[in-house]
Amino acid sequence: MTEQLLWDPLLIQRYNKPGPRYTSYPTAVEFQPAADDLGERAAFARRDNSKALSLYIHIPFCRHVCYYCGCNKIVTKHTERAAPYLELLKKEILLKRALLSKSAVVEQLHLGGGTPTFLSDAELTDLMQFLRQHFNFSHADSADYSIEIDPRELRPDTLKVLRSLGFNRLSFGVQDLEHQVQEAVNRIQPESMIRAVMDEARALGFRSINMDLIYGLPLQTLESFDRTLDTIIEMSPDRLSIFNYAHLPERFKPQRRICADDLPGADEKLAILGHCITKLSAADYHYVGMDHFAKPDDELARAQAAGKLHRNFQGYTTHGDCDLIGFGVSSISQIGDYYLQNQVTEATWEQALHDDRLPTMKQLITSAEDKLRRTVIAELLCHLKCNFAALDEQFAIDSRQHLQSSLDELAPMVNDGLVIIDQHAIRITDKGRLLVRNACMAFDTYLQQHEQQRFSKAI
Description:
Elements: H1 9-15, E1 32-33, H2 38-45, E2 53-59, E3 61-62, E4 74-75, H3 82-97, E5 105-113, H4 121-134, E6 136-137, E7 144-149, H5 158-164, E8 169-175, H6 179-185, H7 191-204, E9 208-215, H8 222-235, E10 239-244, H9 266-282, E11 286-289, E12 292-294, H10 299-305, E13 310-312, E14 315-317, E15 323-327, E16 332-335, E17 338-342, H11 346-354, E18 360-365, H12 368-383, E19 385-387, H13 388-395, H14 399-402, H15 404-409, H16 411-415, E20 419-421, E21 425-428, H17 436-441
Parallel strand pairs: 2-5, 2-15, 3-4, 5-6, 5-7, 7-8, 8-9, 9-10
Antiparallel strand pairs: 1-18, 10-12, 11-12, 13-14, 16-17, 17-18, 19-21, 20-21
Helix pairs in contact: 3-4, 8-9
Protein name: Coproporphyrinogen-III oxidase
Keywords: 4Fe-4S, Cytoplasm, Iron, Iron-sulfur, Metal-binding, Oxidoreductase, Porphyrin biosynthesis, S-adenosyl-L-methionine
Pathway: Porphyrin-containing compound metabolism; protoporphyrin-IX biosynthesis; protoporphyrinogen-IX from coproporphyrinogen-III (AdoMet route): step 1/1
């Protein structure tokens, strides 16, 4: 894999259509309603006990609403709401822990939301002590224990507490450093606040720090975002996620507070993305794929170089071979061939747990065809190529013949020099790296069943 990214705005505009981000295949829109928790119990019963665990804890509370946000969250200033939620969360943890082998080892933990740092330092400490009491956490250097933080929601000792609890990776949203943009999206966090968090996190020894930026926000311009990039590059986070803002006010109520007339036009938005790619590449950030950049010595970049990168519901990861167990409202689990999602409202999640049921809302069991296509999509997203011989061996088929209709669908991308298909493999070219999502869509047999409006545009 080279560090070469070829920027062709006309070509990108031509292929810029809505499609999934493929944190799973089949995607979450294919999950089916679950009448009870028997399917989830079956997933645990059939689990390969030799596999390690990745735990995801969803903390849904936010003190403030960010107008761009499409996450599953509960906006409240009443911090006392956390206590009853955490008690039920512990109940869910115990219910699921009882279905796991005693020898199961946790190699990855992520607290997301919402705003996990909505919890007090004492609540965070209590939750982590509870988890460590009931799970075997790996002490390996490769173990990944991360949390999303909000710089506005940190007490004086919060970062020290998190580090003492074993967290070794932080992720937080910056989005944009321009004050007028922050005002327009209701997320005011001055540069001095971001710098203070970075400096303290470095001093405390967090081994990886990720920042999120968003392009396409109201009042953004190429010139203003360039200033944000200059500052962020100087702060030198280990990873950067540069997300496309998808304005879907009909789906996400907070976005109705954003004035559509203030959004940058399509050409300006594309120019911002192109400038991001050029500037970050010049600053020695490796383009991992799908909006993600990492320093060459970061674990993500090293895993990709070694052919060991994975992709799951947490995005790009070095621990994709773990079973993912989700806890809390709306969380998703991936256990072997099963995908499972918890109830997405606090009330229905609570009721299930009060009734001593796993709070399953939706589920899906992947078929042999799903697993084949999931492998192709993951290989393209993570490593930009997929070898037919490996597929033949893994699935005992003539994969090139089996996937012929999908390969035919890639003909326009082949003609445009974005994809190469020969007798050995499918390869994404340097010219096609920014459009790998489009190549994956050719292998998605469910996609034609859905309106494109259900997904954001590729760029």
